[in-house]
Amino acid sequence: MRKKIVAGNWKMNNDLTESQSLITEVRGIIRDELRLDNVDVILFPTYFALPSCVRLLEGTGIHSGAQNCHQEKSGAFTGEVSASMVKAIGASHVIIGHSERRQYFGENNETCNSKIQAAVEQELTVLYCIGETLEERESNTHYDILKAQLIEGLNDISAQQLNNVVIAYEPVWAIGTGKTASSEQAQEIHAFLREQLTTKYGEAVAQGVRILYGGSVKPDIAKELFSQGDIDGGLIGGASLKARDFAEIVRAAQ
Ligand code: PGA
Questions:
Q1: Which atom of ligand 1 approaches the CA of 99 most closely?
Q2: Which of 47, 138, 157, 171 has the highest Cβ tally under 10 A?
Q3: pLDDT single digits (tens) 58-103
Q4: Residue 177 Cα: closest atom of ligand 1
Q5: In 3-state terms, what secondary structure has residue 145?
Q6: How far is the centre of ligand 1, averaged over its atoms, from the C-alpha of 156 (Å)?
Q7: Whether 116 contacts 157, CB under 8 Å
Q8: Collapsing DSSP states into helix, strand and coil, what is residue 66?
Q9: Distance between CA atoms of residues 99 and 112, nearest Å
Q10: pTM for the predicted model, two decimal places
Q11: What's the CA angle centered on 69, arms 64 and 72, to 5 degrees?
């Protein structure tokens, strides 16, 4: 049985004060109404709010992580933050390869691979995002694209290191558009990704990898998505900015 994950990716939203109040609100609802024994909850605020997030979530069982990191440990990379810095403030997770990073900041499978290497070396758990554009789906090249994103991103990542990697399938056409993939569409891709992992790492390892769905997940459709055999939870953008909606998605994963 794979433990489900519900992760909130806040993107470039909420200043420090707003972040602190949202974290406090989410923390309160989860403490009062939900259990965390069968679901991992992770919050990804901005770098700026991350140390505060770590502090506010201490002892709650809720995890915190960064939305990105740089592949080098330190050096002349203005504006960047390394995996070891994320680790040093007590965060446990990092998102790598989000489609917005690929689209606006020129990241590709190779950069993602270096970042994943850097993060697993720090024993951070990586949420590695992959996903096709609408154009790629319509031209039926999405399986090739997804396979390349998965396999090239995981280049030289051992089965042992894969324990610290979660895959997030996020079709670009579903992110922030209100157009969620149907549970059948998502399950089909998740099964395909697990097949690819089986070819690379063997059945036992592949069965242990958690594969999340992301892209316009809302409380009303979360349960159906999460009940699919290969969907192990969700990476939530917009709906994670509202404590109640996010909590309802966590409830759907229980
Ligand atoms: P969304 O974002 O839920 O707002 O579509 C998901 C994501 O980008 O991780």
A1: 8
A2: 171
A3: 999 999 999 999 999 999 999 999 999 999 999 999 999 999 999 9
A4: 5
A5: helix
A6: 28
A7: yes
A8: strand
A9: 11
A10: 0.97
A11: 135
